[in-house]
User: Fold these one by one.
Assistant:
Number 1:
Amino acid sequence: MKKAESLSADLLITESLSSSLFQEIANELETGVAAPDAKLVEFKVEQKITNLDASAEFNFGGFVNSNSKVNSMNTNYTAALLSDKYQTITNADGEVLILKRYGIGFSLMLEVKDVETKINANYGVVAAAGALNLSKVGYKISVYGVLSPQLVQYLPKQEGDFTNEVFGQIQTFFEKAKEHIGDMSNSSLYPIEVIKSSQMKPEKDNIKSIYFAAKAVASGERLADCIKRYQSKNLAVDDNVVQFIYDYFGVKDAYVTPGVTQKQNAAKWLAGQYNKIERTPLEGSWVEIDSSYVNSIDQDSEYKPHPVPADWATVGKVLEDEAFEVSANYSSEIKIAAMLNTSSKFNTYTLGRRIVHYLDTSDNAPAGSKVMETRYGVGIRVLLKISGVEFGTEISFANIGAIAELNLGNVEYEISGIGINDVELVKLLPVPQDINQNTFNEINKTIEDLKTKISELDPADFEPQALRIRVEEPEKVDPTLKAQAAVLAYRNIVEKERLNETLSKAKALGLPEEPIKEVYKELDIEGNDRPRRSDKLEARDWLEFDEE
């Protein structure tokens, strides 16, 4: 499945785009494009971490976040009004390569490199490291649109070395910029957001690492000792996957031996007898989607939303305030692919809150779509992305500020309008700031203020956007099933069982067939032939790869 990835205008990964396409985007960012018929339809404020390069300088494993060291990173803050103007770039087969979305606004980018100390993404820490010559920190302010005369006086030097003094000036500028963004002309628009579509590479496909960690839990090995062992042997095992599997079996402390039940469940998992499969409810489950997904979806996609309800302006809407979560630890691929601020890596979490006036529709379903119902609405969506989480850290809205402040994970946020471009709401949004408990409390207060404003709006005055689709999926999935089925295949090949025999066992256990067929094919076992002695030895080598 493909997933859209945002390449912020200031952080374009030039290697991923052709030179002519990159130059076209660069030119449009410089001069803008005329768009007399375009309407500004949504606002967005986000503070993100990109291009993070963290070394593996730790005593025995990456699960202790404070033991790893950041070598370089970029951070980006953007405040923008986005339009309904998009440009889709496709290949010869009609597949979407990139999607350009146009708007006006402001951004601040920091480039942090040559880091010689422990550091995180907070502006104060970054500025201090630069002042002490423990890193090199440069900044760039970009203005997309016409600066009003009242605003020019507050604009600092647009590029240079980042210091606390400069940061204060930048915060003042952005505070004033929010006040004047409504005065900006939209006669020219800029490709503020460039969205690239690429094939997902979920960590659940790392079958060998999942198997290795399950074996370690079954044997009663502590996570700390497990990581020491595979690092000392230079085994090709992924830290992040191993950490997830220990958590999957309920182990929350790296220095504690797995308990009896945890060991038993891991042993049952290896035999295909334990997992966390959920039945799909008859009503299916809701999938959060964003405008990037809707506008970059391929024509042959099975998950196309319904068209906008024809009676949106006249039918009564429901006001909802709801929280949601997405993580590769328990979310299906469509739930991960349907939003920009999600990840197919384990131990990364996107927490969201949606405050909207909505209306559901199941009319005029697109041909071939598996979408049962689409929810349209106007309002706001708040997203918090937490990555690089230290093992054992509990993730919730209540402790996000503490996680950032204690360096237990990287925290990013996005507050965006859904079909709403009200500049008065933009004035309530935060400027670039450190993320800690105090500032997160302020963000929460801002959200409550926005909720009050949203509740007073007449949704008929705004353009509704597709914000959720209901599909035939369970609320939560077990991402280990592919690995579990493959392990069953290798074990049965060691017992010289035919493919049909293994598939019959998998069906009884509720495991998928495809990974089993792939293993038999990989070992060149044709049709329903009985595995040869050489196949048995090859399968045993796979199962015992860590025992050499």
Number 2:
Amino acid sequence: MRKRLLWFGLLPLAPAAAQGPSTSLQTPAVAEAPPPVAAPGADEAPLAEDEIGFSSRELNYDDNADVVTASGDVRMIRNGYHLRADKVVWDRKSGQVSAEGSVVTTDPQGDHAYGDRVELDDALKNGVVENMLLVLEDGGRLAAARGTRQDGITTLDHAAYSPCAVTDSDGCPKVPLWKITAVKVIHNPDRKRIYYRGARLHLLGLQVPLLPNFSHPDGSASGGTGLLVPNFSYSRVNGAEFALPYYFALAPNRDLTLTPHVYSNVAPAIEAQYRALSSLGVFQVQGMITYSDRQAALVGASGPSDNEVRGYIDANGRYQLDPWWTVSGSLRLATDKTFLRRYDISRDDRLRSTVNVERIDSNSYLSIAGWYFQGLRSTDKAGTMPFALPAIDYRLRLDDPIVGGKVELEANSLAIVRTDGQDTQRAFASARWDLRQITAWGQELTLTGYARADIYHTDDALASVPTYGGLNGWHGRGIAAVAADLRWPFVGALFGGTQRITPRVQIVASPPTRNLAMPNEDARAIDLDDSNLFALNRFPGYDRWEDGARITYGGEYALDLPNFSARAIIGQSYRLSDKPSIFPQGTGLSDRFSDIVGRVTLKYGRWVSYTQRFRLDKDSLGIRRNEADVTVGSDATYFTAGYLRLNRDISTLGEDLRDRAEVRLGARIALLKRWSVFGSTVIDLTSKEEDPLSIADGYQPIRHRLGFAYEDDCFSFGLTWRRDYAQTGDARRGNTFLLRFSLKNIGR
């Protein structure tokens, strides 16, 4: 069948320049590349598969030979393939298209190929290009003396590749930071990869031979199966480490990464990560396994060790079954207490595994969950770590108000089991009524009523801390409370902005509650601060309830100016009854007058942020809690500091209430646009007077980190030094060096 010729009319002539050397990565100085749309006039009617869109300044047609010769800004288009050249000869009998002079071709993926001379078929898909430059969609470039494209696959002889910029900010040519040269290069857009034969890497003037058969992504997508960027590090315990990840693209929604780790001082390890995405949700699992020596997880331990299989697993997932039901879970387990720290995977001191089934709609919430904890601290005993299964929580908000207020119902059940220790089962049902009104004077008044019924069962009650253990057997209690909370905001102008002063007072009354007969599993970490000052129950969980009558008073302040804001809150409470409190001494709530707590937050644009939380002794105004965090700078250059001191004079009742002090510092400085220097430190300032069990004795560095990095559009490099001062078992103190470098598109 003869092809129909569509003439789109004349286009203005644009100047063209000659091509550079055969392996130059510079873009030829031609007019703009072919647009990703049809030639002018093509929008009048879509082209059929057997039609070719065609335009030029001059056109000659040889009737006898059936040859079309076009010159002067020639443009052709067919099925998403574009051709532009100074001159095109089209033999309609053989279907051959010859183009010369500032030739540019574009495929449907948006990749541009430049050349001096091109031989194509009349589908504009397959052909040969002399002195070829292929510019990929992501900006990467392939230059070759000769290139062939067949069925969308481009093969280049004696070629060079680089994703780096080839011009500077002024548009002048520059040598790319790195490039790959090869005897043969193949670009497969379907697999989105570039393959090399006989390749060499040129980096900063150095040549490095690569694998005989080497490939990497072309930058248009993830790139499929292949090697990832290797990691280099050195630590005192494991010695030099080399890790080379290999990525498997199992399917568009599933992948697997295997990473062998080779060490100079210990046996190799293998790490794996599997990820899957479906229409319902996402799931991933990763882990690591090795055979190495292990010492007892004791602070400062050293000496004989045993070789054994060691490792960890970390999995999580979430599935949305329908608009209301969700299933999520996580699994975190390690073979021993020091594996994660020794192999620099995590510094968590507890691992939590969970499963949770949830249903959420506009007025109700249901959760059926379970937890398991693994303790990694040297003092943790496996038998005392709890299983929580099941943990059921249901909440329902009634649509219709009762006496003008909103009502929320809650039912909760929890079972905690230990293989060596206290077992607890708990269930309760509660109702809460809230009525919020604005008075004629602009006061915000909230009235609250609360009622709850609990039932507990305990076996092997904790004897070492009686206030945590409760009594063995079945026990029940009833809880009730009423509260009135009044806020009175005053708003006015100040310094060209707006300020708001809000006095606040709250009264809460609750009859005596049976607390000490019940075990305390979730209300141990008691600390008065600005977040719970006006709470109905200032214990953090359900197992303890603050009874009696009290009045809480304080104030809030807010100031909003252009590029500046300030927030502050301060308050105190007074217990109206003289009944002894169950709050431990030092928590700020044990006496009738509570300590004074507050928070101040200052922000200046995006450059400065400062937050300070404090608790002052009610008698001496001594600082019992001082926590400050400040950040100054931009994303590129910044300084951050944090300070925490808990000086509550609490007895060593349990680890949840121990005093401590620490300082955290961090900074990053951008240099010369591409370079940066960074560092951080954590220092334990806890003294023996604050915590008799502390080993810091007033000053003990925990960890230092210092490094530098370089990053541009196609290359990044960094070197980090870290020193750890804590030692537990075979997770020893010492130096670690991490070398990181990355070449754009290289890896995977």
Number 3:
Amino acid sequence: MAMVAAWAAKAVTAKVIAAAGIKSLVAAKAIYAAAYAATYVATAVALNAASQALMGGAPDMDSGKTSLRQAIPPRRRGYGRRRIGGFYLLWTARANYAYDVIAWHHGRVQGPVEQVWSHDDILVVRPDGWVEGGHGYGAGNNDLIHLETRLGRETETAYPALVAALGASGEWTNAHRGDGLATLGADYRHAKKENLLTDFPNGDPKWSVVAPLSPVWDPRDPAQIRTNPVNHRAVDAMGRGNLALMILDFLCHQEGMGEDYETTVAPEIAHWKGEIDICDEVVPLRSGGTTKRYWGSIDYGLTDDPQDTLDKLLKGCDGRLSKTEAGVWKLWVGKYRPPSVTLTRDDILDMVLAGDVASQEAVTEIVPSFVSEAHKWSLVATDPWTDETDASLYGGGRSRPDTFEVVNINSQVRRLVKRDMSRERASLRGRLDGRLSCVRVLGERWVAVEFEDLDETRIVELQKGVKTAFSRGVVEMPFIEADPNIDAWNPATEEGDGPQTSPRPVQPVLAAPTISEVLVFEDSVGGATGVRLRIAAAGPSRNDLTWSARWRVRGAVSWVEGNYADLDPSAAALLETGFVSSANLDVQAAYLTGGGSLSPWSDTFGVDATIVTAGVATDFMTRDVVYPISSTADSVSVQEVNGVTRGGATVKIEAQTIGGLPPLTSFGVFWRAADGVEVEVSPAMTHMQNGGWLFLGWISTSSATGDYPEGPTPPGGWGGSGEAVIVV
């Protein structure tokens, strides 16, 4: 408390500098910079308690990146790894030396401080604290700025350089430790007043730091004790803070929502651990590699509305907090789970459905913004999420912006707005009024409901505002129809380009592909059996295309997208999806060029996936010749081959040649015991979907001079690629 007494007894010396004839750093700048006034009066710092050292109104988001001067500065706190500014506890000068102390975080941070910024420049700080001079500061001099930092321990250490310069006057002594505050101390000078604008071209330094902030308890780690933060951590080894852990800490923290952990969280801590695990799940990135599903960072003022801060954290993971019937908080992050509660017709008293949205009010585009480290931790807009189908239906619809202050990666914000768009465009929404038996939905997010008017069971997502009106004996449940496929994610087509750090290159104009046929077939993969699609599509004839397809249940909003091997890599593409829903489906295809340009999606092709085509082609599981077919300009030959089909049948195929074929043409090659070898021009859908043929592979005839077109490689799942291992 010595520091508290010193702050209460001392006000920081004010800078009062004339426009000429005084040799202080700021005065010299006044001489050389017309933008500076003739006289400077610094903010006096008079504090009566360390815990009150940072109280007052919070700055806006942009000002939070740099340091501000306020008579009674506010306290700020944060989570994750983030760039954060602070407020001046000391700002004074002696001759050509200046001395600053900023408090940038209330309470201990994990640290270390990874970067120190002044204005929008990252400083190169040597291990001894001296800043290397560069184009922004020092003009090559390495002895102008000296920095130290403190991480906010309960008992801290004063800055020796400041004490040496200011201790004799009592302005800053060893008692000025900054207990419980993460701070930065700076002592800096200019070599000559004539060089001031060269040494400090941006004027007074405006300090900020990048660091992992408040450590949080992880209930999954048995080595951590909730009430002893000694080994709590703010981020993982990659610098990513788990949003569910932040929400848990903020919910129970005395400087957050202040909930009692033992009574309002602990009974459901097993459920919380599951949500924390989901945040740590890996999601593929368009550029390669992976990221975690939900991570981020935030800093906030202790005088901010705690509910606003909590809402920002929840928004970063599409999270919902709801209380169980016992009054215990449960967190649900944004990943669909099948419901464990079903409401029957006997539970429902009334249902009020929302009407259709007017076409001019329908949201068909969301333009998200997030805090990007690549853009100096600024809030930047990224690719809008557009529902092209509904946009054409509603004559363009309406675009709305959305801000995600805790999100720091483009992939995450795009996945979040996909979920937002699904809710915007959901066709079934409204409010259910149920009997008191419906209190079992309290604490849930997804619920199955038997809708009497629809004569079927639908899965709904409960919205904010679920409440029990005991006086009327009614449970009110606002809802939106859930989308079980909302978490399907194809980064190649859905992640977008992200905010740009340089002008976007001009993209080529690509033609949309066309779908000529979609075959529905039943298949077994990895021990699971289900319905798949075989899609015949046509696009440009080039060898750098990656094909994508997407499907959705007719009437749904979100698509299930994927990249698929082209079973016939020519202008005619043949794609096979993973398992799909057995329902009426909308299907589209697109292609991605080697340069990263995505074509428009094809027109929608409708297919009834409840009707499975019988007799589709199969192929070998093992065979003694890996690729037994060859060709000339007018013939295709099959050599003798023995093998076992995927159905388990042992097959021997005699050698055979088929002549009279056109040159430079791609064929599918098939065999059936009753007919022998036959060929069909790619994509060979007749043989693929009829009669139970054995597919042998793709082959192209040559030109008259023996030249072959771009040859199809053995396709995935159809004759020898790494996707379908053939045992020889």
Number 4:
Amino acid sequence: MTGWLAVDGGQTGLRLRTSDGRYGTGPGFSYADGDPVASITAAVRTAAVRAGVAGPVGVACLGLTGYPARPADRDRLGVAVARALNAAEVRLCEDMVTAHAGALPGGTGVTVAAGTGVVCLAIGADGTTRKIDGGGHLLGDLGGGFSTGQAGLRAVLAAADGRGPATALSGLAVARYGGGPDLGQRVAMADSPVSAVAAFAVDVFEAADGGDGVAGAIVVASAANLARTAAAGVRALGGDDVRIACAGRLFDAGDLLVAPLRERLAELAPSATLVPSAGDPLDGAVRLATAGLGRYAPLVHVHRGTAAPVTEESVVDGLPFPAGALLVSCQAQPGNPLHGPGSMARMAAAAAAGGACGIRANGVADVAAIRAEIALPVIGINKVAAPGGTFITPTFDAAAAVVRAGATMVAVDGTSRPRPDGSTLAGQIARIHDELGVLVMADVDSAAAGIAARRAGADVVASTLSGYTGGGTPDEPDIALVEQLSALDCPVIAEGRYRTEDDVRAAVAAGAYAVVVGTAITNPMDITTRLTKALR
């Protein structure tokens, strides 16, 4: 058992540390990723997988950018993280709280945490607490990595078209982003534009250290913004003999940033004292995971309960669902009004409420959202268009992405068609077993493909691709193929065009271990289209 687990989650990345010395990282937070509960849970799960955390966990403490404002969402996040980590207790708070706990072990004073964004927390001996800034890159975070990088990039564009003076930042921008007149477009089209802009703060500090006047002025302006934020915290605590500590990666710039900050603070908060930070936000998360919450208790949401995930080895044949189970495929393609992780999570919740024993879902976002919403096992797929027709999870990397998002097992294309990375089906399955530690379901189109997939190491064989790899697609499910596959020495899943009670009963009678139903349950647009055509 892992005694405690601590997380520092920011916009650029997430860090995880455990009581037994394990360390892992995950992706940063962005509201553009959809449901924050799902994206945060997926990032935590990714870091835990990378760290080799197998659970159970005693106490997990997470300091987070994107900490939900609504109590109901905090409850959902607590449950989702408890499931993901098999944690007995989950402590959730804003990253400003863990930054304060790491920087000021005494528990009182002002902490300015600056990384990609900026947030300040003031805590007084009388219990006063005040948050300053933390408004996000669109409306706040003044003086942080994003605003510093943004000012630098604006200076580069101004120099390029004659609106501003020449600056060494221009060459640094070319080195980081490439040359050409479309810098703005390239940054905007980055996987994470916020992180891409914030990364340029490092170049701004480098240029300022080298004597560039434009960069130097940007650094001084950022320091002034940070000083105004800190001074507001000092005033909130009465203004007398208040300690100020700075935390976050932005302060890795050292005196280049701290010296002008100290100079401005002397004007704005002369009675305050700037002190060295005792630790960083991850240290603060460790502290709040291993000790009483004390002054921080009002700022921390605590979830306790039996929220551990389904024990996958507790059912027959090692599968996470029993024989005779109905599994529901929750997928909606672009163009369908239900497309998106939020809709699919609610659809999965409805299926669970109706008695489904598992969910099949496509893509990282949907898998993460569904795992955050319900406790059922999820068969993850990752549809990737590839030459040769292979489409369903055609590579190891595609499988790894959905496993890190929370998939309980993975379904892959189990046909003989070529894979885009040149691997074989047997090689892909072996890597999934060895490196991801999950079961593999092979989606096949024929009895011969099923036999070959089983020989390649597939744990389960499914009739999913019958009628979809050449020729016309029939209207009815392929019960005959299920019967042929049932001769294999592994469970067989019936999938593909199952719509009625008679269909699912026939599949089980033909030897299916379980049945997957998708469109007939989760695609009202298709159902409506069929029924409308029937009336014409």
